[in-house]
From TrEMBL:
UDP-glucose/GDP-mannose dehydrogenase C-terminal domain span: 328-452
EC number(s) recorded for this UniProt protein: 1.1.1.22
Record-linked InterPro entries: 6-PGluconate_DH-like_C_sf (IPR008927), NAD(P)-bd_dom_sf (IPR036291), UDP-Glc/GDP-Man (IPR017476), UDP-Glc/GDP-Man_DH_C (IPR014027), UDP-Glc/GDP-Man_DH_C_sf (IPR036220), UDP-Glc/GDP-Man_DH_dimer (IPR014026), UDP-Glc/GDP-Man_DH_N (IPR001732), UDPglc_DH_euk (IPR028356)
GO BP, one annotated term: glycosaminoglycan biosynthetic process
Entry similarity comment: Belongs to the UDP-glucose/GDP-mannose dehydrogenase family.
Keyword annotations: NAD, Oxidoreductase
Any single Gene Ontology cellular-component annotation: nucleus
Record protein name field: UDP-glucose 6-dehydrogenase
Pfam families: UDPG_MGDP_dh, UDPG_MGDP_dh_C, UDPG_MGDP_dh_N
One MF term in the entry's GO annotations: UDP-glucose 6-dehydrogenase activity
Gene assigned in the entry: LOC108989380
Catalytic activity: UDP-alpha-D-glucose + 2 NAD(+) + H2O = UDP-alpha-D-glucuronate + 2 NADH + 3 H(+)
UniProt-listed NCBIfam families: NDP-sugDHase (TIGR03026)
Length: 480
């Protein structure tokens, strides 16, 4: 029986291993983590992450061929294939601070693998890492080994949160990079055999190590670039009276461009896009390619601009001050169908409004009060450092209340900001909400979820990203 161990029971490791266990009943899969609370949650009725369909998969395999454990060393030493899916935060200090990846967690995992291994192993990079990480990891592994053969593979994960299970069941492609040696080819084949249990072989792409590592950064950079492109257009649409959804539709009909990932928004978030682009920028700079670095940097700059522009629009529309005014925040997660708040645009928008002394009443169907307050008191980039999380002080956030539904959040509010596209926000009784709000009542839709015309009929002053402006807003231009 092949044994797989995955170090890191997070958003990537957990769902990926659960699906491997489901699709390969003859493989024993152990998911290990240093976080006792996370492992306990994986073994409980309340899984640590919210992901549609995940619970069902876990329940089918847990205790049969899928195990969650904190006994990292035991499971690593017994495994034939070790996936590494630990945090790769952006460095907060020292060389490359604010850009380069901090490989502390990766390095400690690699050293541990080298220490506890007694047999040959395939070590698989699963978390996104900078190009050439495999080379560094290989050095750690081989220099410590006791004649043990380690083969390093890069097998980046392309799942998106909210659709993780669907993406894993039916991936566009699986990418496996390895050394171009006979041993490397054998290792690639071994991993290919695992995926071939359910993925058609023509969708399994095999490359060299560096191509696989770079493809992951490139794919995320291209996706983020599309969003920044449409968001840049949204600003121009507001200035000219065009409607960004009409422009996206027309542009997306070109089969060379395609219709997906063209929704204008208050900005992209999530654990990958910004981090991976910063990584790409740093690698370009280190390789003496400043023009290439600047090209990609602009994708992040436009994303930051979009969030700032939104905050400015809110403040300027409300007579240039939100001081002491109740603002309802609907949605805090970085996208719908997830409870994840890593790099969510809501953090920057809320911090911007708090900077102008607003009183925020926040509602998100999946994010806890504790998480929201921690996010708003945390420093940039600290979210991916398990040790730094403790330094956040949620009690310092006094202008924020977190409530249990949208009606409570909006009651008595001067304005509403929609920051996540949860389906339930489309179906709210906006007539009732209007009745209970201060007048004039504002809606700032950062996700294009509301029916603008209908809300204007009710009496709201509505701003929706990239849509023709309300006459009220035209008189109060936002300073970006
Ligand atoms: C373009 C648009 O495609 C077309 O829809 C519009 O109406 C007019 O402008 P055209 O300029 O005729 O058409 O050619 P196109 O095939 O788009 O190529 C433009 C340039 O991009 C060429 O120099 C081509 O070699 C280059 N190109 C295209 C690349 O370098 N790489 C590619 O992958 C595609
Ligand atoms: C992304 C990649 O899609 C995935 O392949 C990779 O493995 C990890 O990073 P994820 O971050 O989970 O996945 O979510 P994604 O659906 O890509 O959305 C990222 C952000 O972009 C979200 O904040 C989302 O709201 C935003 N977005 C997405 C837009 O603003 N407009 C769009 O059209 C699409
Ligand atoms: P991702 O979104 O990439 O899955 P997460 O932050 O959700 O990232 O998960 C990473 C997990 O890795 C965390 O649960 C963390 O506790 C775990 N981890 C980090 N370092 C180690 C290590 N050396 N050994 C075991 N687990 C680790």
């Amino acid at each position: 029986m092949v044994k797989i161990c995955c170090i890191g029971a997070g958003y990537v490791g957990g769902p990926t291993m659960a699906v491997i266990a489901l699709k390969c009943p003859a493989i024993e899969v152990a998911v290990v983590d240093i976080s006792v609370s996370r492992i306990n949650a994986w073994n409980s009725e309340q899984l640590p992450i919210y992901e549609p369909g995940l619970e069902d998969v876990v329940k089918q395999c847990r205790g049969k061929n899928l195990f969650f454990s904190t006994d990292v060393e035991k499971h690593v030493s017994e495994a034939d294939i070790v996936f590494v899916s630990v945090n790769t935060p952006t460095k907060t200090q020292g060389l490359g601070a604010g850009k380069a990846a901090d490989l502390t967690y990766w390095e400690s995992a690699a050293r541990m693998i080298a220490d506890v291994s007694k047999s040959d192993k395939i070590v698989v990079e699963k978390s996104t890492v900078p190009v050439k990480t495999a080379e560094a990891i290989e050095k750690i592994l081989t220099h410590n080994s006791k004649k043990i053969n380690f083969q390093i593979l890069s097998n980046p994960e392309f799942l998106a949160e909210g659709t993780a299970i669907q993406d894993l069941f039916n991936p566009d492609r699986v990418l496996i990079g390895g050394r171009e040696t006979p041993e490397g080819a054998k290792a690639i084949q071994a991993l290919k055999d695992v995926y071939a249990h359910w993925v058609p072989v023509e969708r399994i792409i095999c490359t060299n190590l560096w191509s696989a590592e770079l493809s992951k950064l490139a794919a995320n950079a291209f996706l983020a670039q599309r969003i920044s492109s449409v968001n840049a257009m949204s600003a121009l649409c507001e200035a000219t009276g065009a409607d960004v959804t009409q422009v996206s539709h027309a542009v997306g009909k070109d089969s060379r461009i395609g219709p997906k990932f063209l929704n204008a928004s208050v900005g992209f978030g999530g654990s990958c896009f910004q981090k991976d682009i910063l990584n790409l920028v740093y690698i370009c700079e280190c390789n003496g390619l400043p023009e290439v670095a600047n090209y990609w940097k602009q994708v992040i700059k436009v994303n930051d601009y979009q969030k700032t522009r939104f905050v400015n629009r809110v403040v300027s529309s409300m007579f240039n001050t939100v001081s002491g005014k109740k603002i309802a925040i609907l949605g805090f997660a970085f996208k719908k169908d997830t409870g994840d708040t890593r790099e969510t645009p809501a953090i920057d928008v809320c911090k911007g409004l708090l900077g102008d002394k607003a009183q925020l009443s926040i509602y998100d169907p999946q994010v806890s009060e504790d998480q929201i307050k921690r996010d708003l008191s945390m420093k940039k980039f600290d979210w991916d450092h398990p040790v730094h999380l403790q330094s956040a002080d949620p009690t310092s956030i006094t202008q924020v209340s977190v409530v249990g539904d949208a009606y409570e959040a909006t009651k008595g509010a001067h304005g509403i900001c929609i920051l996540t596209e949860w389906d339930e926000f489309r179906k709210l009784d906006y007539q009732r909400i209007f009745y209970n709000m201060q007048k004039p009542a504002f809606v700032f839709d950062g996700r294009n979820v509301v029916d603008v015309e209908k809300l204007r009929e009710i009496g709201f002053i509505v701003y929706s990203i990239g849509k023709p402006l309300d006459s009220w807003l035209k008189d109060m231009p936002a300073v970006a």
